[in-house]
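re the bet — no i am not wrong, look at it urself. input seq straight from the record:
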Amino acid sequence: MDVKKLAEKGNSVQLLVKGVDATFMNGVRRAIMNSVPVFAVEDVRIYENSSVMFDEMLAHRLGMLPLKTDLKAYKAGEKVIMMLEKEGPATVYSRDVQSTDPKVEVVDKHIPLVKLAKGQKVKIEMDAVMGFGKEHVKWQPGIVGYSQLAKVSFDMKHIDNPNKLLDAAPGQFELKAGKLTVKDSSSLNLDLVSKARDIAPPGAVEIEYDENAYVLNLESFGGLEAKEIVEAALDALAEKTKEFKKQVKEL
C-alpha cells in the first residue's frame, strides 16, 4: 500500500491511496462516517423561549452545530454542559453558546440561530454528548468520498488538431513536443475529459480506471482535523478486526 497527500486546504484533505481495492476504501469511508466519535448537542433543556421559533426547531439547530472535540480528553458517551442565554432585540449567534469546558466549543462562531425582538428571550441549558455517526448524522465528523484514479491516454495518430481538445477540456491537458498529456490525473474533471473524447475521432482519447488506486476526499466539519478523523477511523477498523479475530479463536 502507498498513501500520498495530494492536497490539503483548511479542513479538507485529498489522499491518493494505491495498492487497495474498492472494498477497503468503502470500509474506510464507512468507518469515517460511522465510527469516529465527536461531540454534538443531544439533550436540550429550554427554560425560556419567547422567540417566534418553536422549541423543537431551536433544539434541532443547536443539535447540528459542529463542536470541537478532544479525543484524548473524552470518551464516547461522556458529556459537557453548554448554556445559551440572550435577550432581544438581537440576533442569537452560535458564538453566544457558552461551554463549561473550553476544549469543547462551537467551531463556527457566525451561525445565526434565531432573531429576538425587544423583550424576547432565550434561556437554554444543553448537554453536548460524544457520539457516533451511526446513531445520527449530527455525529458525523465530516463529508467523505472516494473515486477510482482515472487514466487518460491519447493516440496522436488520430488527432489532427490537439488545440481543439485543449479548448474542450480547459485545464485538464497540456501539449508538449506535439503530444497531449494529462496535467494531474488525481484531479481530473471527467465531465470535461468526456466532452473532449466525444469531439475527438474514435479511439483518439481513451479513459480507463485503475482498480488499485483511489482518491479519498475528506472535508472535516471542524470538530476534528482531517488527519485525526482518518487516524480514528483506521483505529476503529483495527479494533473491529482484533475483536473479530478474538471471537474466531474462541469458536
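see?? The chain has five helices and twelve strands. told u. also The radius of gyration is 25 Å. so pay up
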